[in-house]
Structure formats: C-alpha cells, structure tokens
Amino acid sequence: MSDPKKQYPEAYAICEKFIISKQNMQEIVTRLTKEINMGLTRDTHPRATVKCFVTYVQELPTGKERGNYLALDLGGTNFRVLLVNLINDKEIDITGKTYAISRELQEGSGSKLFDFIASCLAEFCKEHKLERLNTPLGFTFSFPCKQVGIDSGTLVAWTKGFKAEGVINKNVVELLRDAVKRRGDLKVNVVAILNDTTGTLMSCAFNHRNCKIGMIVGTGSNACYVEKTVNCETFDEYRNSTKPNMIINCEWGAFGDNGVLDFIRTSYDHQVDKNSINPKKQIFEKCISGMYMGELVRLVIVELMDKQLIFKGQSSQKILVKGNFDTSFITEIESDQPGSHRNAAMVMDRLGIRTNNEKDLDCLRLICETISTRSAKLAACGLVCLINKMNVKDLTIGIDGSVYRYHPNYHTLLTESMNMLLAGSVKFELALSEDGSGRGAALIAAVCAK
Ligand code: GLC
Known about the structure:
Order of helices and strands: HHHEEEEHHEEEHEHEEEHHHHHHEHHEH
Largest sheet: 6 strands, mixed
Shape: globular
Bound molecules: alpha-D-glucopyranose
Number of domains: 2
Number of strands: 13
Structural class: alpha/beta
Oligomer: single chain
Strand content: 15-25%
Number of helices: 16
CATH class of the largest domain: Alpha Beta
Radius of gyration: 22 Å
C-alpha cells in the first residue's frame, strides 16, 4: 500500500482529527459513567441525557422456556414478523417474514404506521393459521421508551430517521393493540415490549450464562446491561423488589447531547448532525452507527475532491448527494484483500467515478478505516464503562447490528480497544448474538406468560 501520509498529506491531516487518544478514551469512560449515574438516580433522571430506562426484565433465561411465541421487530428500515418456537434448552426454531418500511411510513402518520404493522401481522398469522390462537407476542420496538411495566412503553423521541406523527408520548403497546382491534380479524396477546439491546442480551444469555451486556452497532447504537435493582431508583420497587437484578436500557446514543462529547467531535460530525432530521440529538450514535458512518466518509471525500486532491479530473453528481455513500460501502472497501482495490473501484464506479488509480483508492480506504476505527473505539469506551460499573471480572457481551456483523475488522478493533482500556483486568468474550429481536422477544414473552 502507498503511504498516504506522504502521498496525501491533506487527507491524512483530516483523518488525524478523528483519532481518539487513550487518554481521551479514558475521559469518555469517566463522562459516560457520570451520565449513566444521572440517568439511574431519581432526582437527576428528568434532566439526564443518558436515560437508563428500566426494562422490567429482571431475569435472564434459564433454558427451560418452551413454546410458540410471536415477535415483532421494528427499529430500522425493515420490519419483521417472527414465529419463534422454543424447542429445548439448545434449539430455537424461527420462521419469519420481512417487510420494508417505506420512507412515507417512517415519516407519515403514526396510525398509518401501526395499521401497516397490524396488517403484516395479520397476513403472517393467517399464513401460519395463528389468527385466533391468542399467541403471546413480544414487541421489539427499538426506540427510547419510558416503561412503567413489561407491557407498557411510552415513546420519548424518535431516532434513526423515524418521525411518524402522533406517537411520541403515547404507549406504543396500546397503539399496537388498537391497530389490531381496528382490524377485528386477529387475536394476539401482546405481553411485552422490549428494546433490541434487551433482546440481544437475552438471546445471548440463552447460550452464554454469564452474558451481562447487550449491544447494537447497526443503523443506531445502544446497549443494555444488568444492574442491581437497588440502584434503579426510577423503578418504584427498587428498595423492596424480591428480584436482585434489572436490565437497564441505557439509550447511550444520546450521550453527548449536552455537549460533553464536543471535545472529540470534528467539523464533519457537526455537519452530519446539522443535516440530520434530529439535529443536536443522538450525538454519540452519530459518531458510531451505520446510519452516519458512510455520510462522514462522503463528506471527507467531497472536500478532498473539491480541492482537487483526490480523483483528479473526475466529478460526479451522485457523490454530492447526502446519504449516497452507504455504510455498507465501508464494509466492502475494507474487505478488499491487501493490495487489491477491486471493491473500492466498484464502489466508486457506482458513485459515478471510474478510476483505477491505486493511490486514490488507498486514500479512500484510509478514510474508511479512520471512521470505522473511531466507531469501534467509542463503542469500546461504552462497553468498558458498563463493565466497570458492574464491577465484574468475567463476562460475555452479546452484540448485533449490521456494522458489527458485516464489517471485516470491527470485532478485532473493538477487542483491541477494550484490551487497551481494561489492561487485562477483565476476561471478556464478544459474541455475535443471533437474532435478539426475535429470540430475545420470545424468551421475554415466555418468562412473562409463565
Ligand atoms: C437507537 C434507539 C435505541 C436502539 C438503537 C439500536 O439508538 O434509540 O433504542 O437500541 O438505536 O437499534
């Protein structure tokens, strides 16, 4: 590979702005710890940015859960309906159907969105002859929700590109039940609402008994962890609950919304934020997750192209359009074997730039690596914060999301950063959690239906 530092000093200088030193990582851990404590504490919770919602999930799976459950998964560009059969302590069978959530549905009226969800559910149930069975259903709804019970969650804010009207401050379980009732052709029993991180933790805990954290790095980013019930002050029974633990949905995507991450943000981060549909919100998420990584890369490339420093003599309309550099392109480019530029050239071709200039393509790769490395470092800070908070010395962390799942080095980058911060004091395993939104929802539904 050519040396971009010499060949592309300007590009290298931009990339340097995204590098987070060990000292800054430690500072991020300290700051996040403070924000989490504010979220957990009754007095400070209302003004906390990292909300730390109680999930009302107080038990991890035992492996004895059995039966058929329905799961709905809403939280990204796809919506899924799943039928989950918990067969024995090792086998879980899942059949499901995926439906695209159009932009109109994401940004239109809330009742249309819930009617659509109910219609997909009805279609699926008819196909599987379930429409009259009142099957227990777990609703994976991956947005910040204030819960007052396992089957009650009020949407606090939309994230990840959603803005359907009339849903904020409503109990989304009621919206779902109402939409099902309006149809009148279906009987299901909505027993639980959960976040995808909670589903991920539960699903992973089914196979790894010492799983204590669930993390998502996909369209959005967030994590949940096992807290001592006595520390969960926003839970009414925190002092006298018979159950010692509670899963906390951190909603860490909002970390930094009060400015505490400004010391590491770049002008590109500010631009991404300004052009988003939720400016000044989800600041940590905007530095980490798939909805924004590609856009950060695009902004850097466009600046270098404007200055005639890369892809000289070439231009394209496509690359100038916001959102056109999909995060999956980063994954593809970084999947090129050393010395090969096959994927990189293909990606640029799709964006209207035909080139075989290896130095340019090396530079492009450097930009991608810069953004993924920073994402992984920040996610590692989050995980280390939770590990220290729980004060455990040995654990498994269940992870899901498109970035973690498909990026060729993300797992390694995360592991390296965590090792650097933990310096051997904790034994941890990062495990890909299989289908948390489906399996996890079913496991929680099983515990509730018990
Ligand atoms: C966003 C949502 C959060 C979810 C995460 C990952 O941050 O607010 O609830 O867990 O995305 O999907």
